[in-house]
Amino acid sequence: MSIHNLNEFFGTSDQGDFTQSSFTLNTFRSEIDRGGIVRDNQFEVRLNPPPAFNIDATLNRTISLRCQSITIPGTNLSTTPDSNIYGPVREVVDGVNFAGTVDMALIADQGMRVRQYFEKWQQLAYNPQTWDLNYYEDYIGTIDVFLLNKAGQPLYGVRLWETFPKTFGPIELSAATTDGFVAIGVSMAIEAFRGREARRAGTSPVPNYKSNNPGTNVI
Fold first, then answer.
1. For residue 184, which of 100, 116, 102 has the smallest C-alpha distance?
2. 155 with 183, same domain?
3. Which residues contact 133 (CB under 8 A, 6 or more apart)?
């Protein structure tokens, strides 16, 4: 028996009218022209430290502008084998895990305010004289990451919840380079995150991820 179109290949036609392959050079160009692309170097980061972190808004903005790179986290569904069936064992979801940490790299300034910023934020978790630990709510904040178009307008945004600087890495110096610069590496612990498309921005604040009515913008 000869197969004449894609719908007949697996004996189903529930995927729409795809009787032939839709990929051609012209259709690909048309899709890119219609939907555009997102550049990985067009983004903005806003750090929102906890209220106990008494810092000038201008300095906070300066620190955010020096973010050279950041990772938008992913989601992992943890699974367990379902062996209570005949035949091949299948995996079933038993939980949701987020990235745990988000890595950032920030360009250091000559006053080393970037490093001092994260040192002070980190010290909200403990007393540097007595080493006593503080309450969780005392040192958690949020981070907003925006993907931008060429005009600097937001296309998509992600809010990272319950975040704090878990680790900031060592600074490596070398006399062998002549045009390098110092970058501060920071790993931010996160609890969860939410995303929102630009067309929904401004309609209402991004709800807390623990809200009883999370809506459809949960990643």
1. 116
2. yes
3. 125, 126, 127
CA distance 102 to 98: 10
CB 4 within 8 A of CB 20: no
Rounded CA-CA distance 169/153 in Å is 32
The pLDDT confidence band at residue 216, using thresholds 50, 70 and 90, is: very low
- For the whole prediction, is pTM greater than 0.90? no
pLDDT in tens, 7-28: 666 666 555 555 556 667 888 8
Structural domain boundaries enclosing 31: 1-37
Domains held by the chain: number: 2
Q: In this structure, which amino acid lies at residue 209?
A: Y
Q: Does residue 122 fall inside a structural domain?
A: yes
Q: Are residues 52 and 110 in the same domain?
A: yes
Residue 209 lies in a domain: no
